[in-house]
């Protein structure tokens, strides 16, 4: 595991983009696992700029996203599908048919989750998985629990996650209470993992996740068992 501390969010974004750009350059048909939220936005802006400068080609790349809110349509302002379109996909030359986000409107959520795991396997697995980390240590919507959940599933959001995401919705009452989340099985099967954390509010949980015991009460701590993890923390 590599843990890199940088002074600013801008440096975090540049370094994270360097790693993803290198992956796509070395293997154009890479499968990228992508994340949403405020932390990866800078990385996506860097990747867009490099594509527009002619430095990157995403035409053969496939993406699979970590999660989606249950009950939100793809065009809802706070859906993760729309987030990805507005913050990355609409600005690069990726094939829309190769961008996968869980279906939060699926009538059979168990079938949707099982199909999502099968799709990742059929794609040959994830080459590089981008992750953020919640203040409670969650990755994706794998919240603190008694066990590590392996499969993709419909997950209940922890109150702290709801509170943290309220800023995107205007108030906590509007935040969905459940989401389809990629499970630990697919995340841990990724060949490389890049986790980013920004700001002093994340310092404590980064310490607990990567220097404390491995426990499902701190879901990100399982990454200590992965053979190729890079953590970039900005102290800004």
Helix content: 25-40%
Secondary-structure element string: EHEHEEHEHEEHEHEHE
Q: CATH topology, which one? A: Rossmann fold
Based on CA atoms alone, the radius of gyration comes out at 16 Å
| CATH-level-2 architecture | 3-Layer(aba) Sandwich
Distance between the termini: 22 Å
Number of domains: 1
| Arithmetic mean pLDDT | 96
Helix/strand structural class: alpha/beta
Shape: globular
Characterize the largest beta sheet: strand count, sense, and whether it forms a barrel: 7 strands, parallel
Strand content: 15-25%
List the uncertain runs.
Answer: none
Strand order of the biggest β-sheet: 1-10-9-6-2-3-5
Count of helical stretches: 7
Structure description:
There is one protein chain. By secondary structure, this protein is of the alpha/beta class. It has one domain (2-234): 3-Layer(aba) Sandwich (Rossmann fold), CATH 3.40.50.1360. Helix content is 33%, strand content 18%. The protein is built from seven helices and ten strands. It has helices at residues 9-26, 41-52, 80-87, 109-122, 159-169, 184-189, 203-211; strands at 2-6, 31-34, 62-65, 67-69, 99-100, 128-131, 153-156, 178-181, 192-198, 229-234. The strands form two sheets. It has a seven-stranded parallel β-sheet with strand order 1-10-9-6-2-3-5, covered by helices on one side. Helix 2 links the parallel strand 2 (31-34) and strand 3 (62-65). Helix 1 (9-26) crosses helix 2. The longest helix has 18 residues, at 9-26.
């Amino acid at each position: 595991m590599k843990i890199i501390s940088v002074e600013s969010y801008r440096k975090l974004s540049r370094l994270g983009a360097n790693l993803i750009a290198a992956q796509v350059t070395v293997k154009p048909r890479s499968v990228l696992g992508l994340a949403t939220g405020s932390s990866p936005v800078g990385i996506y802006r860097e990747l867009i700029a490099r594509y527009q400068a002619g430095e990157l080609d995403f035409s053969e790349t496939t993406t699979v996203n970590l999660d989606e809110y249950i009950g939100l349509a793809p065009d809802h302002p706070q859906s993760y599908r729309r987030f990805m379109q507005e913050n990355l996909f609409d600005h690069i030359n990726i094939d829309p048919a190769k961008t996968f986000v869980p279906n939060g409107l699926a009538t059979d959520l168990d079938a949707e989750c099982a199909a999502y795991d099968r799709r990742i396997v059929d794609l040959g697995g994830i080459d590089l998985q981008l992750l953020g980390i919640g203040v409670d240590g969650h990755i994706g919507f794998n919240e603190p629990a008694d066990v590590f959940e392996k499969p993709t599933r419909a997950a209940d959001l922890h109150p702290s996650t709801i509170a943290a995401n309220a800023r995107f919705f205007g108030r906590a009452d509007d935040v969905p209470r459940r989401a389809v989340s990629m499970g630990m099985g697919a995340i841990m099967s990724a060949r490389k993992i890049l986790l980013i954390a920004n700001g002093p509010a994340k310092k404590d949980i980064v310490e607990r996740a990567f220097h404390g015991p491995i426990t499902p009460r701190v879901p990100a701590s399982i990454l200590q068992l992965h053979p190729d993890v890079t953590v970039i923390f900005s102290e800004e």
